[in-house]
Amino acid sequence: MDVDGGSSNNPSGRGAPADDPRLAAEGETAIARLSLATGDLPDAADHVARALAFLPTFPEAHEALAVLGRTPQGGVPLFTSLGGYIGAVAARAHLLACLGSKDEAVDLLLQVAVHEPARPWLDVPWFWDPDLAGLLSCERLHGSLLTVLPRLPDPMTTAHRLALEPLAALARAAGDRSDCGPDLLWLLSAVLRRFDRPQDALLLARRSYDLAPSANASVMAAMALRLLGRLDEAQETLRTAWRENPEDSGILADLSELLVQMGQTGQAAAVLREGLSARPGDPALTTLSQDYEFRLTGRAEPLVELADSLTRLSGTARAFASRTLARASEEVPWLSGIVWPSEKTITLLNQTLAEHEPGEDLDGDFVLEDLEVPSARMTLQRAFPRTRIRVRGVPGPDDPRESVRPVRWLVWRYDGVDPWPTREPARVTSTGAVRERTQVRWNHLPSLWEQTAQLGQVPLPDLLSVLTHPPAEPDCDLGAALRRHAPHAWVRAVQVTACCGIAHQQDGPWGSSTRRQVLADLMNGPEDWVCEAAAFAMVVHAWADPASRGDVAALLTDRLVRTRRTCGGRTVSIAASLAQIALACPGIDESVRRVALSLAPQRPGGGEGPGGATASDQGLSRPTGAPETIDRLGVLRRWFPRRRRALPRPEF
Length: 652
Hints:
Distance between the termini: 20 Å
Shape: globular
Number of helices: 32
Number of strands: 4
Strand order of the largest sheet: 1-2
Strand content: under 5%
Structural class: mainly alpha
Radius of gyration: 29 Å
Helix content: 55-70%
């Protein structure tokens, strides 16, 4: 049975959105009572279901539901006819509980609860009944938990714990039964672990193992031990489980994750190699092995191999590989989102935004000692249109206003020290398409490639125009936060999105294509964020298209070498970012890697790699600039998460 959508603002899309769920629930209940009075039971049932969808614990809605349950020709069939609508499923569960069909009632309400785990669907008297666990069939409860466990949030937020607390109470009470089988016990252990009750979870897992030794019981015990901080015991438990169940690759996955948590990434990789020698090609072990090789070396190639596997895998194996790639990419420059700029223009912008709202009627001059990239200047003047920027000089050698190679495709031209777009604004439809697909962060590069695929249908001239005429931030909380605190992040994200759209243009093989020439020209054009966006889009394309990797690596190599030469005479604000992009490019030569490493910012201390594991400094690593900027812009933290999450077992 599928639960059909729903939220407190617009339950399953039925009815108008409600700013006040209680008011909406009151209105729906009032209509239900009128329908009851006229004998229109189906209409009354529909409005009761709507009321519950708006406010699951609304007492008057439950009273009307009870009346429907007692009315001849009423009861469960009225709500069954409403299908999988979430309010109707909850109503069926409540009526079944009143009729004594506790097993089916629990099963239905749990499905509703995991569909919307932050809402109090379970906070009803019959589910809180301390005797409920004793009235349930252990077999049915096992089946229900087996279905909902993979959909329980892990880890849970405070909102999840508050909303789902009745499930924790039910799990504790069920665990006290003497007739619980071993499979139900380890499932109950898994539930309680998610509620941060590791001691209870450990006792249930060990009871399960004592009744019937199993890999699942051992793994649940080890997970509880991890939460308790007893890492050595957890490791020994998993090693024992592996010896007893050598065919279970999930145990090795858990053991390797534990070893990483203990700071033993090398041992984790060795464990996976041993597992792969016994089970060559195992998807879970191969996936994690690529992850750990990246952690140890900082090289992009293992992650590129992992990305390539997404096209071959399916089902849970593909989902696990995608989650692993997302976790490995998290907080690594460009692999999970745009990189913060370093220009003094942006420092001035941030200082001004600290005291003034964007768009405020400021009439003043900003003075820069040296010319900086035009996109930074454009971003400042988008935020404060009446400000003027004066530049005292042009840095040398290698005039930043000039292309580093002869190019045809340009988006900026200069009149003295003043930059001007070469193109008029794009059509509204094209600008809207780019705006709709622009994100400041992404899961990993394959997901960015997929999300920008439709931009291949946008005319090339419009995509070029968007680079210098970016659309406004979206009308949402994130858009408002970016507009108020980090407009530069939005501009850079738009430029990346537009360049990825250029990379998606369908005009023949890569080597002879217009899209290749355009991106190469943009990368080699006047010094600007557009150079970074174009270089990055080519790297994203190279991850998606193995046939283009050698050519993209050659193009980036030439650009990086020229940048390194220029850095010997002056500051190049985009140099570090270009270096980080080059480090993410498959096929980069070792000598070029050394050039990139000399330009890329290094981690402070040099000892902690992605995910807190020991790693080499010779490759991609967590950036030193962006997290500090994000900390300062605390309002943006929820859109730029820093905490790493452990992966669940592959089979879950």
